[in-house]
Records
---
Amino acid sequence: MRILVVNVNTTQSITDAIGKQAAGAACPGTEIVPLTPAFGAESVEGNYESYLAAVAVMEAVRAHREPFDAVIQAGYGEHGREGLQELLDVPVVDITEAAASTAQYLGRRYSVVTTLDRTVPLIEERLEVAGLSARCASVRASGLAVLDLERDERAAVDAITEQAARAVEDDRAEVICLGCGGMAGLAERVVERTGVPVVDGVAAAVTVAESLVRLGLSTSKVRTYAPPRPKRIVNWPPQAG
């Protein structure tokens, strides 16, 4: 089984970290192929960057020539999963939905700890669209930018674990979801601080994707995610200069 794991930003070190986390969660015999988009922002922290990332991720997958069995969109709260589902005949798993749906097996209510406060509405909207918001106790911001997660790991861990603890104590969350693909690998430290299950979206998405492939299931094509209708698309891809 081969699974494409697509970073939503263009920072290669984040792609590498996501790929490592995905490979660690994969079963023997599953090949993880990390992809970095050819264009886009170095980090995704708002609607403009998220919509740009949606196109970049779709183009990265379309340009991949080797066969694959599933795709993981490794951005928390990002747009574009629906477009991938229209384009592909294999399962498409978004880490936002994978983390939240997994959390609901583990406790009555879950909270998401993410990066900047401006990303909170994006995550809340994605959870609502996916039908996963009813049991979400809160979406909390750590105050860190995505790239801060790499610049100062100790400060990042402290900020994330602090918000996770407050979610458990103040919001009565029973499970924590790590709300950024760049947080891959931090789950154990949050567990140590909070004592509750912590779901890493990348690891959860790998497990969901593997299960769908083994069950022989993929996206329904009868209505919402039917393939795009054949038509002329003008000036795409755009030419440099």
---
Amino acid sequence: MHAEQEQRHVYYDHDLGIEAYNLSGIVQKFPNHFHDYYVIGFVEGGKRHLWCKGMEYDLNAGDLILFNPRDNHFCAPINGEILDYRAVNINMDVMQRAVKEITGKEFIPHFTKNVVYQSDITQSIGDLYDAILAHEPKLKKEEAFFFLLQQILQEHAAPFDEADISEPNQQIKTLCSYMEEHFSENITLDDLLSMTSFGKSYLLRSFTKQVGVSPYRYLQTVRLKKAKEFLEQGVAPIDAADMAGFADQSHFTNFFKEFIGLTPKQYQKIFTDKPLPVTPAKEWPNE
């Protein structure tokens, strides 16, 4: 029954360089992971329990969700309720250019909150999403995009170098860099140990505490990012899986859907297919 209700729509807008994301009728849990891009989204319907960077939130319709790149998070339904969710995903370079246009300054923004309950900014996300799906003129989409970002920058963001952010120590950073460079290889715990002064148990505990995910989950997330890049370039899913270091096509497909909410083929189609007809936004809870 749930499978029939599910709708998973993602569209890449070439004018703005961002993804518009809509999941509806979803009961799927999303495990602990992170993204290398900003996420600005909201719960349109249903309830979710969210864990993000050691904090927990109960989410309802009308709640705003803000993820910085590398903010680890996971979520699950509350009382089996289905989720309706909309978001835009913004790469760091796109965000930096937009910030300069809006503020006249060059800086990397950092969202100071991950959740804002019952925020009127949700209306602006819906407006931007609908403009993208409706193939509105570039000017209208840009207005919606900049208006949304201006609201968030004013109310819920600070320059990255001014934010209170704890970073991993140098040994952990070295391990992250190694996995990012050798993502397609069969990396073992002994490989990682050889670059530190840690024991196995301490390495696992320390890495997970400082980064927010385990070494294996970090490596798989890096592989997922690379696989997405290959898919965007038109590489066949079976080849993208191999190039990114996944053991087999089945494992890759299951992992991809578990974390992205789409299959690799569905994700790849957003860069080649025309968008689906507009799904009108529901009435926003705080109107």
